[in-house]
Amino acid sequence: RVTEWSPGKRVVMAANEDYWRGAPEIKKIIYLVVPESANRVALLQQGKVHMAEGLTPDEIVALASSDKARGVAVRGNQSMWVMINNELPPYDNLKVRQAINHVINRESIAKNIYHGMMNPWQGVMPSTYPGYESWLKYDFDPAKAKQLLADAGFPDGFDAELTFDAAQAAMESIAILLQSDFKKAGINLSLKKLPTAAASDIVQSKKGSLALWTDMPIQPDINYALKLVWPTGALVNYHNFSDPKVDQTLKDGEGVVDPEARIKAHAGIQEYIHDLAPLGWIGEHYFAVGLSRKVSGFRWYTTQYYHVNEMTISE
Predict the structure, then answer these.
(1) 159 and 245: one domain?
(2) Quick check: 304 pLDDT over 90?
(3) Cα–Cα distances in Å, from 130 out to 27, 37, 65, 103, 264?
(4) Domain count, the chain
(5) Are residue 17 and residue 62 in the same domain, yes or no?
(6) What percentage of residues in the chain have a pLDDT greater than 70?
(7) Does 50 share its domain with 18?
(8) Which CATH number do you get for residue 12?
(9) pLDDT at 303
(10) 222-273 pLDDT tens trace
């Protein structure tokens, strides 16, 4: 139960001693709001907190040499992409969207920015979920992207704007790399760095043009995962994608109960969506936190949460 709520500062929670699985060993949780990830790392290293969330890949790697804390990274169900508004010109042109996918250097992002804590990915659902189909048709090829833009009527390229969350240092590194690589195809990309709420508003209003975005379907079910993002007007369809074949396939598949038959009911639709390039696929970044070496029992769940009642702290 919540015993203290200080907006923008901290939340204090007390354990439920009557929890049906037994009273938790940890009796109190204090969540502190610390805007800068470097300060969160410092608190962790000083032993003033037991966990730090929202750390950069560099910070997670650096914790390997610490005797006070460790980095934990789990390949899960998170995905990162360039949100492309399929309704806005020139992004309503398939060749433009395909060109964008050919100037995203996924391997470089995974290796040099995420230090291997990202799976280069071009899927339409998490690769860890049953029924996932791997399609990798958009290799990093600026020359091919430039030709696609010329075929689309943009031989000299065009100007574009990319929004991203200022609170996520890795996103800024990705945005800078994309700016350089987009230029190779003739797309002059300006970067719009905004506070989390403002960046989210642009994406979730479905009025933005290009933006970096992270999301995940919390249930490992093919119909749920696809329906969250791809049907017309879907909750996470911030890119305004709409296709009657996709809508019908997902509607038909929702009532199929048998697991194998449920997957078969969606056969072919992942490649079909992939070919339409409705997003600029980047990768699946790992769920990562910094943990005190005194903490044990940490486990990751598809909801992107952990269960404190499963954890213990040794003093």
Answers:
(1) yes
(2) no
(3) 37, 34, 36, 29, 11
(4) 2
(5) yes
(6) 100
(7) yes
(8) 3.40.190.10
(9) 77
(10) 999 999 999 999 999 999 999 999 999 999 999 999 999 999 999 999 999 9
Q: Would the pLDDT of 151 be above 90?
A: yes
Q: Considering only CA atoms, which of 167, 184, 179 is closest in space to residue 54? A: 167
pLDDT, one tens digit per residue, over 172-227 is 999 999 999 999 999 999 999 998 889 999 999 999 999 999 999 999 999 999 99
In this structure, the strands spanning 158-165 and 187-194 are parallel
Supply the range of the domain harboring residue 302.
2-74+287-313
Do both 68 and 214 map to the same domain? no
Q: Is 20 exposed, middle or buried (0-12, 13-18, 19+ CB in 10 A)?
A: exposed
Residues in the chain: 315
Which own/partner contact pairs does 97-100 have at CB distance under 8 Å and 24+ positions apart?
Answer: 97/276, 97/277, 97/278, 97/280, 98/138, 98/145, 98/148, 98/277, 99/144, 99/145, 99/146, 99/148, 99/149, 99/152, 99/185, 99/187, 100/145, 100/182, 100/187, 100/277, 100/280
